Amino acid sequence: MTSPRRRRGRAALAVAAALWLVLVDAAPAAAIDGPEAQQLAELHAPVVLVRAQPRACGEGEPYRPTAVESVLGKEGVVLRGPSGEAIDAPTAADLFDRGAGWHLDLPGGALRPGCQYEAWSRANGADQDVVVYARVADDPEEPGWIVLQYWLYWVFNDWNDRHESDWEMIQLLFEADTVGQALRTEPSATAYAQHEGVEEAEWDSTKVAKVDGVRPVVHSSMGSHASYYSAHRWLGKGASTGFGCDDSRPALTRLDPEVVLLPDEVGTAEDPFAWLTYRGRWGEQHAGFNNGPTGPNAKDQWWGPVRWVDEYGRDTSVALPELGSNVTDFFCDASQQGSQLLVDFLDEPLAMTAVLVGLGAVTALVLRRTQWRPGEPRPIASRRRAGQILHSSVRLVARHPRLAGGLGVVLLVGGALATVLQVVVLELTPAENLADVIDHESALGVPLAHVAGALVSVPAACLVAVALVFAVRDLERGDDPRAGPALRRALRPPSGLLTALLLVALLIVSTSTLVLLPVCLWLVARWALAAPACVVEGLGFRDGLRRSAELTRGRRWRVLGVAVVAIAVASVVGPAVGTVVLLTTAASILVVNVVSALVGLVTVPLAAAVLSLLYYDRRTAWEARAGAGAPSSLP
Questions:
Q1: Cα(147)–Cα(40) distance, rounded to whole angstroms?
Q2: Residues 64-76: tens digit of each pLDDT
C-alpha cells in the first residue's frame, strides 16, 4: 500500500515534517472523545489472533491484551523513581505526570521469567479481562484525516528481548474531516506496528483480513506481540522488524477485546486515565532492549500518526517459507539462542564470563593437543591424529571434485523431491482461512509435511555418505572411484545405509530431548564407525554395530568428538553460510537456500570422508594391537 501522503515521496515528507516542527509550534495529534468516537471505535474493533496455549506454562501465547488495572494497585508492584523513591502498589494517580527515570517494577525477574509472570497475571485476571484501548484523533500536521488507533497492553514480552509490559498498536486512517464523516465511510489505510517499524496496507487490500467487513484481523506474534496481517513466520534483520523470527502461525485462539475509549485530555491525578500522562518505563529497569517500554504518549505515532506511517512505513514484511528451510531455521534458532546467551550474560555476567573463558580454554587446549600436519589422505589406511583426519578429509574431497559433484546430484534431486512431497501433503490439508486457523484445525499439516520431506531428504543424504565411503574404499584399494558405481553399491547390501540412518536417528533424538542426550551420545560414540565397517569389511547390520564397538573401545571420547565435528560440518556449515548471505545481502530466501544447498554438495561428502578416515585410523590401531599384543600409544 502507499500511505495517504506517500505521493510526494518519503524524502520530501521527512524534510517537510522536520521544517514544520522547527519553524512552527506544531500541536500534537488531538484526541477526540464522545458518542461518535465511541461508536467508530466499537465498529472497527480488531479481532486479535494469538497462538493457542493448550496448557498453562506450556507452548503458546500465555498473555492477553489487558487493562492496565491488571497491574496497577496490585501487591508486589513497585513504582521506582530516579532518586531511589519506591511506591508500593501504585495506582493510576501515582503515575500521573511522572517523567523519564521512573520504572514500574512488576513482581518477578524479567531476564529469567520462567512461569512467574504468567501465573501472576492469571491470578490477577489479566487473561480474562481482554481489553483494547481506542484513540480517535485528528492530525494537525495532516489536515483532512481522522486517525483511529488501537493500543494493546500486554503484561510481559517474552521473545528474543525480554521485558516487563509491552505496548503494541494498529491504526486506521479515514479520509474525513470529522468523526461523523468517518462513520459514513470506510477507512482508507491501515498500519500495524511491528517492533520499531510499521507495515501498512490499503483498507481494500486483500491482505487486510476483516470480520464482518469492518473489523481488522490482527495476528499477534507469539512472545513479541508484533502485529501482522496474516499467519506466518516472519524474518527480521533490524530494529524496525526486530532481529529474529516472529511467529504468528496456527493453531490460533480468537480474542474479541472490549473497547475502552481514551479521553481527549487528562487533567488531574484523580482521572481514571491518569496513567496516560506517565512518561516513564512500564517495566523493570535493565540495559538495552530488555528495559521496560515507554507508554503510548512517548511514541512517535501518538504525536504524529500520519507522519509516522510516512517515515517508517513499509509495504511488506518478509514471510518465511511455510515449511521453513535449513537457512531460515538456522537463523531463527541462532538468533533465539544468541539472544538467550546475551540475556544470561546480562543476568549473571561473572558466571557467564567464567563459562565462556572456560570453554575457550578447553577449545584452545584441544586444538593445541592435536596435530594438523601432514594432511595427506594417502595412504588411506594409516594412523592419524584428529586434526590430521579433518585436514586429510578436506584434501581428499578437494582432489576428487567430479566424485563429489556426481554424488551431490543425488542431494539436489532428493531435496527437490522432498519439497514436492511436502507441497503435496500441504495441499491435502484444509486451506488456512480465518476459520481454519482457530484452535487446532490446521496445526497438523506442517508437521506432517516436514516428516514427509525428511523421509526423502535424510535417506538421500545417508545414501551419498555411504557411497562416499565406498569411494574411499576404492581409493584404498588403488581403484579410481566414480559416483555411479559407488551409489549402486551403497544400496547392495543395505547394511551400510541402515547403520548410517541409525546414526542420524540417534543424533536427531539427542538434540530433541535432554533426557536421552547422554544415552544417544554414548551410542553414537559406540556405533559411529558401523557404516564404514559394513562397507569395507562386508558386514551385516548387527555385525557392523559390533565391529564399530570393538574398534572404538578405549577411544570413544575421541571418536565422539571427531564424529560430532563431521556431523556438524554436514548439517551446520551450509545453513550458516546461507545465513551470512541472508544478513549481508539483499538476496531472496530462494537464493540463500540455493547457496546453502550448493555448500551441502561439499559438506556431506566431507563428513563421510571424515568418518571413513576415522574408521581406517581405528582399524589400523586395532590391527597393530592385535599383531603386537599391546595397546597403541597414539591418541
A1: 11
A2: 999 999 999 999 9
